Amino acid sequence: MTRSVFVENYHPIHASRLWIEAMIMLSKKTPSARLQTVPRMFAAQARAGLTLIELIVVLTILVALGGLIVPILPGLLAKTHQAKCATTIPEVNKLWIQSFTGDLTYPDVYDSLLGAGGTALAATLPGAPDVGGQLTTGTLNAAEITALNAIGVTSVVHLDDASTGPGLDNATVNAALLGTPIDPLADGDTVAMLAYTPSTPPVVGDATASMLSLGIRPQQYPADAKFLVFGIGQNCTGVGAGGQMIEAPIHFGGEEVMNPAQFYQRYCVIFMVSASDQHAEFVCACSIHPDGFDGAEAHVRDYYDDQR
User: Fold this and answer.
1) What's the pTM?
2) In this model, does residue 264 exceed pLDDT 80?
């Protein structure tokens, strides 16, 4: 009904008149309408930038924030280091145990921690020359070699710690590049070992402090036990395709004295050998520091001690 009324009242002349009036009004109002509909964001862009006062305020806030953050950074680096070690060391322990469980052998071809000549500790070790008095050298006899061979440990590679050459570029990554000549362990060879005297109980701060940090109980081992320390480098059979891990992990410390570019910072493993009972066994994985060796528990303890 409404539609029919509209049609009946419709007249072309009236419609044309209305249309012309609307166009006239629109043409008159268009300029002002355009000005009124300009978005505020475009008006804001008309400004050239920050005023001098605003810039000073922003810089003051940034300086204040920097003053708050900079003192915290060393602590954050230390905590990152502690957390990483607390997870990496148990993982290495698990992988090495799994290797032995699977085929009764451990990965082979470790970094010897000895210099290129294979007769003395490498000069690039942290806390050189003896990792803060916690590392020394010893020799292996035929019985000890046999015991190590029985669990799959047969060879090592020595570190390039010369004043020139690849070792100068990076004391960790280039210490023993992939393909470095392999040295089979033989009777009379020099090896790196914990500075441990069986007749002296471990004491905090002396040459046997690492035994405490690693949780090693000497009374559980033979009196002539030697605790050999090897690094897990790129040549290790536990690294790469078919190994226990894709890449040899690097221990990033929170201090300049543990900078991997200047000091050897691979994770290490410790094996015990004893000539008296022709016995050898895997003891634990650990990280190397300027003052000795630490296990996972030591890093967890340090992490929470720093929060107090």
Assistant:
1) 0.73
2) yes
